[in-house]
Write a sequence for this structure.
């Protein structure tokens, strides 16, 4: 990791969203780099380098991997289609990682841009607005909002990415612990809930969920998958309910097994509610809000 001179000692931002985006970008870079190196550099871009209309922080992930051809760069953010079948076979899929990263960057009023040369490597840069003194992360002064380009504004010439979206972020919609061992489900739900301005904490099994609750006692609601390695959802819910400090936290159980008796089994283990997979996002959001108001 490299940090350029002049980078502020303190940067106000959404820690969970930034962590998820950087994790996705670094994971992709490592996956597609068989030889060479992967570098993360933190910088404050010059005016001509900055696609945002406000001062920004840049997190630059570069690799010496296989790269992407110019034609295929046009598809790279379209639900991240694999550039070709041989890439998928040799390195495995990246799922929805880049699409989710782009949506999370957009939710933070930022952007992701890329440049790449086939056979030489790629550079993905996450741009996030520097919050002025006196403002809080995720809340920009009104003077910032009119300058942001409207949805649909194309990226600068020679760059691929997403337009940034203006306007003030809505009020915080709560902190959600999402527990699921399927990374694709995790990315999809995290993105959808982040768009509703919820803060997402992730865990890949019941054991991790208990640890996350210890680290984040202010979690508002838990979304609990059932079939997971190490510790399944039933066991995790029972453990949560044994802790008197967590007895009030709503738990929505999520399972692909929509069989008769599943609802009762989840409730008996400590769930507050139940939703079957595949998840209907709007239905899930309605359930979350209902339990937040309870």
């Amino acid at each position: 990791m490299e940090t350029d001179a002049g980078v502020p000692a303190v940067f106000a931002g959404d820690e969970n969203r930034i962590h998820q985006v950087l994790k996705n970008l670094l994971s992709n870079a490592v996956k597609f780099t068989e030889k060479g190196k992967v570098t993360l550099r933190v910088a404050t871009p010059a005016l001509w380098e900055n696609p945002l209309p406000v001062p920004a922080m840049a997190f630059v992930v570069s690799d010496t991997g296989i790269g992407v051809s110019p034609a295929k760069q046009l598809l790279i953010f379209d639900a991240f289609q694999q550039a070709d079948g041989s890439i998928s076979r040799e390195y495995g899929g990246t799922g929805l990682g880049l699409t989710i990263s782009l949506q999370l960057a957009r939710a933070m009023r930022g952007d992701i841009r890329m440049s790449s040369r086939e056979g030489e490597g790629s550079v993905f840069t996450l741009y996030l607005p520097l919050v002025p003194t006196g403002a809080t992360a995720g809340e920009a002064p009104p003077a910032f909002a009119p300058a942001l380009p409207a949805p649909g504004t194309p990226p600068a010439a020679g760059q691929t990415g997403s337009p940034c979206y203006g306007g003030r972020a809505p009020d915080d919609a709560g902190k959600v612990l999402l527990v699921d061992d399927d990374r694709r489900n995790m990315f999809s739900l995290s993105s959808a809930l982040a768009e509703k301005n919820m803060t997402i904490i992730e865990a890949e099994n019941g054991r991790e969920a208990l640890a996350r609750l210890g680290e984040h006692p202010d979690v508002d609601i838990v979304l609990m998958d059932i079939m997971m390695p190490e510790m399944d959802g039933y066991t995790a819910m029972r453990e949560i309910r044994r802790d008197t400090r967590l007895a009030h936290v709503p738990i929505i159980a999520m399972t692909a097994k929509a069989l008769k008796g599943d609802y009762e089994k989840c409730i008996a283990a400590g769930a507050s509610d139940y939703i079957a997979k595949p998840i209907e996002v709007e239905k899930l959001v309605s359930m979350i809000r209902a339990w937040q108001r309870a």
Observations:
- The two ends are 45 Å apart (CA to CA).
- Residues 15-31 form the longest helix (17 residues).
